[in-house]
Amino acid sequence: MPSFSRILLGLFCLLVALLLLAPTLVVIPMSFNGNKSLAFPPVGFSWQWYDNFFTNPDWTTSFTNSLIIALIVAVVATVVGTLAAFGVTRAAARTGGLLRALLITPMVVPGVVLAIGIYAVYLDTHLVGTVTGFVLAHTMLAIPFVLIAVQANLEVFDRRLETAAASLGAGRLTVFRTVTLPLILPGVLSGALFAFITSFDEIIVALFITSPYLKTLPVQIYTSITRDADPTVAAVGTLLFLATSLIIIAGLLIGTRRGRT
Amino acid sequence: MNAPLRSAGAAIEIRKASKRYGAFVALNDIDLSIRPGEFMTLLGPSGSGKTTTLNLIAGFTDISSGTLEIGGKSVTGLPSHKRNIGVVFQHYALFPHMTVGKNVAYPLTLRGINGDDREKRVKRALDMVKMADFAHRYPNELSGGQQQRVALARALVFDPPLLLMDEPLGALDKKLREWLQLEIKRIHRELGTTFVYVTHDQEEALVLSDRIAVFNGGRIEQIGTGRELYDNPATLFVGRFIGESTVLRGAVEVSGDKTVMTIADEKVVAHGRLAGGARPVILLRPERVALKRPGAEPVSGENRLSGTVAEAIYLGSGSKYEVRLKDSTIAIVRSPLGAADFAIGDAVDVAFMPADLTLLPDDASADVTLT
Asked: Domains of chain A, with CATH numbers?
């Protein structure tokens, strides 16, 4: 029979899980609201907000914008962040530590502070409301995530394998392609995923550098909810919840299959 | 079917080679010639320069000064991946994301060998190390000894003229180590490849090698067969590093072609004298020394030192004694089966003929570096 403290611990875990899930569980029923209101609990049932999301150009455009920007950011930040991780891991210990501290500042500095700086520079360089502007800003925010994920893999990577590969006849690029990259791939992939998500749901910087002609999905959600309490927001939220859940489940499945190495 | 892999071994010529890391001299002006097909062991304590020498040959580090030729060609500036040398590492260094078969096929793929030819060569190499049944396993599913055999197959599958091994058995237990030593010896005999083997284990060196180069403090002290090194060590360091030994020190008088050493109040006579002004020491091998009862009839010309038995160990094939001499030196004596038995505390004489001792110049570093 489980002891009293075990039961208590179980209940506590359940409570924390509920707390973490609560906002999501509120959003899902709201997305099927029959009325145009964000009241909870919702009244009636309808698919109209989903319909609105897929047909209203305000929503479709901002979604496409976010997707394109996040994909570019994922690629750029993963390449740059992986290279940075190599530099940090393989530099002398002291230099590496300093570089690392420098490279993860975007994670530490408050988003608003960064946003002000970026906005000021973008005004002068006419990057406000451009895809380039978004990609640059989001890449900067995403690099620390890639750096940390890849570095964690590189630190346990046995460099003697590279020496062995070289002795077997592999040049430096071949060593990277056939030995190093496959072994740090989990870190690179999770770095890429983090980079994508960082960009996709970024709102603070986006609010500063957005323009009526280029809105990302979070900006669209924010303006929509502050202006007319549109339950489409809840539909978007539910869709995103579903999408991320699927990605994470897929990631876990791939992870177990690769667990051998 | 199982025709062994064959390759003409490469010769290695190292002349006046040094390796410096800043102010630290890892390798100090060494000369080393290795013959084609030879099994050469680089033996020495850690930090003696043996692994540095191996890394120079492999191309993992650059030579600071001097020349290095493999197969008659200078390899200075040639990166390791173009040297076509097999290397076996202490920690196996198998690729964990590839099966055993893929690991062994790796160097072949890099050389543009594919298809049936590659499969055949992989099978042959795995047969050679008796690992053919494991081709579809991953390295982490194998024991240390199995991994090292796969690593050996991978290093030999592309028929390199030269194989380098860096303490390959260092991480394995004694039984397995002894068995793999014989396997390595067999493979060397079958292939005709030049083997260069790094170890700090002198017994291993004696088992495996055609010749041994003894390293100490970045220099080579002596190069020779195991027998040469054991019977005629050139330096006190070599004498102490190879096999067991007792070193006697005392006041020395040289008269004619005799050297007489006084230890406590007893005299030991040695034939010959040391050239130069170095202070001589006497090196004794445990099996060249006999234990006798103090009163026993002396053999003519025999040296005798009196002492007491401090330790007596029965080994089955004989006995080993540690005898405390009058100057507190511990003398090691191995007596064959059937010799008289002694117990701890017995008063004994350590007896040996002048021809059975070795006179060597004293070298304080020979004591310090042994641990």
From this structure: 64-213 (1.10.3720.10)
Q: Of B194, B222, B240, which residue constitutes the final position of a domain? A: B240
CA quadruple A74, A75, A79, A80: dihedral sign: negative
Complex-level ipTM: 0.82
On the question of pLDDT at B227 being above 50, the answer is yes
CATH number of the domain bearing residue B302? 2.40.50.140
CB-based contacts of B209: which residues, under 8 Å, 6+ apart? B39, B40, B41, B197, B225, B226
Tell me what the mean pLDDT of segment B336-362 comes to: 90
Q: Indicate yes or no: CB of A179 within 8 angstroms of CB of B95.
A: yes
Q: Do B263 and B327 meet the contact criterion of CB atoms below 8 Å apart?
A: yes
Rounded to an integer, what distance in angstroms lies between the CA atom of residue B310 and that of residue B325?
10
Query: For B287-337, what is each residue's pLDDT tens digit?
Result: 999 999 987 777 888 899 999 999 999 988 889 999 999 999 999 999 988
Same domain? For B212 and B296 the reply is no
- Residues of chain B contacting A166 with CB distance shorter than 8 Å: 60, 79-81
Is the pLDDT assigned to residue A116 strictly greater than 70?
yes
Q: Which residues of A touch B138 (CB under 8 A)?
A: 260-261
Q: Do A179 and B111 touch (CB under 8 A)?
A: no
Contacts of B60 in chain A (CB under 8 A): 163, 166-167
| Cα–Cα distance, B74 to B87 (Å, whole number) | 19
- Residues on chain B bordering chain A, Cβ-to-Cβ distance under 8 angstroms: 58, 60, 79-87, 89, 91, 93, 95-97, 106-107, 110-111, 138, 140, 154-155, 158
Please, what is the average pLDDT of chain B? 91
Report CB contact under 8 Å: B110, A164.
no
Task: For residue range A83-105, list pLDDT tens digits in order.
Answer: 999 999 988 888 888 999 999 99
Nearest beta carbon to residue B110 from set A163, A169, A183: A169
Tokens of B103: 């690991």
